[in-house]
Amino acid sequence: MDRDEENYYGKHGEPRKFDPKFRGPIHNRRCTDVICCVIFIVVILGYIALGVVAWVHGDPRKVIYPTDSYGQFCGQRDTLNENKTILFYFNILKCASPVVLINLQCPTTQLCVSKCPDRFATYIDVQASYRYKPDQWNYFRQFCKPGFNNPRKSVAQVLRDEDCPSMIIPSRPFLKRCFPDFSTKNGVLTVANQTTFKDGRGKTRNVTDLREAANGINNILDARSVGMKIFEDYAISWYWILIGLFIAMMLSLLFLVLLRFTAGVLFWIFIFGVIGIIGYGIWHCYWEYDHLKGIPGSDLTVYDIGFQTDFKVYLQLRQTWLAFMIILCGVEVIIILMLIFLRNRIRIAIALLKEGSRAIGYIMSTLFYPVVTFLLIAICISYWAVTAVFLATSGEPVYKVMANQTLCKYANLTCDPETFNTTNVTKLCPGAQCTFAFYGGENLYHKYIFIFQLANAFIFLWLVNFAIALGQCTLAGAFASYYWAYRKPADIPLWPLFSSFGRAIRYHTGSLAFGALILAVVQLIRVILEYLDHKLKGTHNSFTRFLLCCLKCCFWCLEKFLKFINRNAYIMIAIYGKNFCTSAKEAFFLLMRNVVRVAVLDKVTDFLLFLGKILVAGGVGVLAFFFFTQRIPVFAQDVPMLNYYWVPLLTVIIGSYLVAHGFFSVYAMCVDTLFLCFCEDLERNDGSTAKPYFMSASLHRILGKKKLSPKKA
Could you give the CA distance from residue 82 to residue 274 in angstroms, rounded to a whole number? Predict the structure, then answer.
């Protein structure tokens, strides 16, 4: 008895019992994993309650608008600050103080203004000249506290009470806050072409002091400049990006329709198409490499020029195109070698895809089910994001004493701005103020904000995995209805996709939630490990880093294994209607008894589908490349002027791949379902009249099994 014959029989060699009434997915079902279903429903209700509580306590304006020293939002409608959208720091030099790291707040008065200062000025100079230069006073006064208009008040008292800033410097808004307008002139850091400035307290300071106060602001501003250019590119090219994605969708649908009739020819076109695209890429890289020969500066290395925000600079280097050419050559060689050694297995996989395409041809509605999964996941993401924002902004404004004197015992203590002036703090600490520090609270709700955020993330992962599980089980049930139809297509039930969806929701919500729960726990652990790894990057404890790396690797492997088991367990649930654990066990042992077929048919099929995605994305990407680089004469006048042509190009390529993935995932689920059904069919039946096979005649011939018994109409 060979290995395939052994699969016809049971655990101890006895034939598997034939059920003459078995016709695929069982309709007389009962609810499975009821306890998990109840827990899942309770958790969803609790999640809704958490969102409501966060909505009641949260205020997203705390994220949108900056807050001044009085806890008022800058730019908020129907307030005195409606037209004052930018936050101004009285003394930005204090932002370099270690207090900033402790309190997460700059220890200086902060005021909402309509625009940032555009000149150097000090309060001493403005006060001395206010009588014969009133315009300077009127300009400076807009950066003082609202209502202050007493230039006769002594400078010492004004600075002590922080009625006005001691100085203003040319600034520009960034993240709705005024930061010094840094620039570099001949390699020297300047502000408004000046390297020094007066601090309003009798000292002349260097602009490098300002850079320390706004640490890293130059890099941030460079990133902002790149970000603004990218945003501009999206704003003027979004129409063409949508056209590219629409073309990708049409190509994916066309390939899926053609796959039913010409699976073999089409997939060989896929394969050679990918080889051709990569080959063109190799030729283009060589052409660019050879074209740059002799051009001054082209022989520099990436290391020589360092990081540049203008990525076109790298395309002027021969080294860049040489690296691209080497990478593409390596990919080309790998693909060709895989085709040589797996050519026979690919023929088998193509035959299985033909059967899958025939199944989808009878159940065309399955092609559009990924839209349902996408909508469910989009709802989960939106709800999670909104809840996270409301939770993050749930705190009440907390005010603290900000004192100029370092020995003030009341410094950094909480205070009430409404009663602060009636306390003794102002007498014991002259110049002390009760200013806004941060959002927080001391009640029970605010103490557990972090726990709520963690719960929000965990339930989000649970719901996303449930949405994916529901889609897999629904598709599996529909395709199993096709396979177990004895006379195809006569015995295929009416509306198999909708019937499968109804069975999954009505009877197996608990089982799907159970599988999603296990996966969500592992994913949450992985998120925590990534967070710890990010926090420990600056440490020098090699053992800790090594242990963390091992844990990350182990849990990554565990997640992949669980996804594989869950996917096949959902197929068994869709067919037999058993609980999750039983279905997972039966699916696992069924696959282990057919491990060779799993490795060859299933994985080679995945590889072919991946090549299809690459061809769709690559084809649309090449078309987009020629379009955005104005190499198509017919559309040359319609191409928008872009800062970086790679922005819409990468968007189209990645978007096309995701669109193709959505459609090809239906085929992947179809092949996996048919494969499990085929293995189960072999173990249940032997092809005799008493126990006939349910597989189609074409699939039977491909896999070289016994001759099928004739099916009676």
Answer: 57
Q: How many domains does the chain have?
A: 1
The mean pLDDT of 338-360, rounded to a whole number, is 75
**Can you list the alpha helix ranges (DSSP code H) found in 311-415?**
318-341, 343-362, 369-392
- Which of 155, 166, 188, 6 has its CA nearest to residue 93? 166
Lowest mean pLDDT of 129-143, 221-235, 325-339, 643-657, name the range.
221-235
Q: What Å distances lie between residue 209 and 11, 117, 205, 458, CA to CA?
A: 79, 18, 7, 45
Residue 87 gets which letter from DSSP?
A: E
For residue range 377-412, what is the model confidence (pLDDT) as tens digits?
889 988 998 888 888 777 666 777 877 656 677 777
Q: What is the CA angle 567-569-571, rounded to 5?
A: 75
In this prediction the pTM is 0.67
Whether 279 maps to a domain, the answer reads no
How many CB atoms sit inside 10 A of residue 636's CB? Answer: 11
Strand partners, 438: 398
- What pLDDT digit, counting tens, does each position of 457-496 carry? 999 999 999 999 999 999 998 988 888 877 777 777 788 8
Distances (CA, A) of 396 to 57, 80, 87, 389, 437: 9, 21, 20, 15, 11
Domain that holds residue 422: 396-440
Please write down the long-range contacts of 252-255, taking CB distance under 8 Å and 24 or more positions apart: 252/616, 252/659, 252/660, 252/662, 252/663, 252/664, 253/367, 253/663, 255/612, 255/616
Residue 285 token pair: 């890289």
Output the 3-class SS for 474-519: HHHHHHHHHHCCCCCCCCCCCCHHHHHHHHHHHHCHHHHHHHHHHH
Query: Where are the extended beta strands (E) located within 35-104?
Result: 86-89
Is 560 domain-assigned?
Answer: no
Query: What is the C-alpha to C-alpha distance for residues 203 and 206, in angstroms, rounded to an integer?
Result: 10
Tracing tokens 């600075």 back to the chain, one arrives at 159
Q: What contacts 668, CB < 8 A, 6 or more positions away?
A: 605, 606, 609
Q: Is residue 597 part of a domain?
A: no
CA distances from 649 to 286, 289, 529, 548, 658 (A): 21, 22, 34, 37, 14
Phi, psi of 491 (to 5 degrees): -90, 0
Phi, psi of 31 (to 5 degrees): -65, 140
93-107, 222-236, 574-588: which has the minimum mean pLDDT? 93-107
- Is the separation of the CB atoms in 118 and 142 below 8 Å? no
CB neighbour class for 45 (10 Å; exposed up to 12, middle 13-18, buried from 19)? exposed
Distances (CA, A) of 70 to 113, 379, 438, 518: 14, 37, 11, 48
Residue 434: inside a domain, yes or no? yes
Q: Which two tokens stand for residue 529?
A: 């490990």
Strands (E), 186-271: 188-191, 196-198, 204-206
Cβ-in-10-Å burial (0-12, 13-18, 19+) of 557 comes to exposed
Q: What is the pLDDT of residue 474?
A: 93
Per the CB < 8 A criterion, the answer to whether 52 and 95 are in contact is: no
d(CA 192, CA 170): 7
Q: Is the dihedral of CA 66, 67, 73, 75 positive or negative?
A: negative
The per-residue DSSP string of 102-165 comes to: HHSS-SS-EEEESS---S-EEHHHHHHTTTT-HHHHHHHHTTSPTT---TTS-HHHHHHHTSS-
List CB contacts of 501: < 8 A, sequence separation 6 or more.
Answer: 470, 474, 477
* Whole-number Cα distances in Å, 472 to 201, 257, 349, 433, 551: 70, 21, 21, 61, 29
